[in-house]
Write a structure and sequence with these properties.
Layout: H1 2-11, E1 16-19, E2 24-26, H2 27-42, E3 51-54, H3 60-71, E4 75-78, H4 85-95, E5 99-102, E6 116-119, E7 142-147, E8 157-161, H5 162-176, H6 193-199
Parallel strand pairs: 3-4, 3-5, 5-6
Antiparallel strand pairs: 1-2, 7-8
């Protein structure tokens, strides 16, 4: 996934990648800021495929964070900022996340946990940039962990690999005949596959 994203960023650096109510990011800017996240994550001595919590409200920062985690060679675990503390606690216990990407204000809504925090709103301005591809990522490397609703008991984590997501999204692109001229509305939470479809 990071390689496909970087190819797109290299081909269309000035094209809009993310547009929100009061912010607009080109592919060059999105790639650069995701690289800053990736670099900061790599300072935690992370391992390829390691699960990283993504605890950010719907925003450009959440999309930057998602790509930063993937570019660092890790897998993201979406932790919806609107979830009840009990559900978040279960997800943290289930995944044993050791690093969470959040904001200084948002961290206060997290239940007690031993994970280290990386604040997306306090990144150093001089963080190195440049593509941070992990050469050890393979098609069967872990990309994300999504939790079920828990309607039949406790929520269960579902592990998704890079190859599964790539195949899924290429099939969607083919089915809906998506082109670079199309725009996708981000309306679903990143805790659901539909939300990830709208980003990737």
């Amino acid at each position: 996934l990071p390689i496909l994203f970087e190819v797109q960023a290299d081909k269309n650096p000035a094209n809009p990648a993310v547009v929100s109510e009061n912010r607009r990011l080109t592919y060059r800017q999105l790639n650069r800021q995701a690289d800053q996240i990736a670099y900061q994550l790599q300072q935690f001595a992370i391992q390829p495929g390691q699960l990283i919590g993504l605890h950010l409200a719907p925003s450009p920062e959440a999309i930057i964070g998602l790509w930063g985690i993937l570019k660092a060679g890790c897998a993201f675990v979406p932790l919806d900022t609107g979830y009840p503390p009990d559900r978040l606690q279960h997800m943290l216990n289930d995944t044993r996340i050791s690093v969470i990407l959040t904001t200084r204000a948002g961290a206060g809504s997290l239940p007690p946990h031993p994970a280290e925090l990386l604040y997306a709103d306090e990144l150093p301005a001089d963080a190195p940039v440049g593509n941070h591809k992990q050469e050890r990522i393979t098609p069967d490397s872990l990309a994300c962990c999504l939790h079920t609703s828990g309607s039949t008991g406790q929520p269960k984590g579902v592990l998704l690999e890079h190859q599964a997501l790539v195949r899924h999204f290429f099939s969607l692109q083919h089915h809906y005949r998506l082109t670079p001229a199309d725009r996708i509305l981000q309306f679903a939470s990143l805790t659901h596959i539909a939300g990830i479809e709208q980003v990737l």
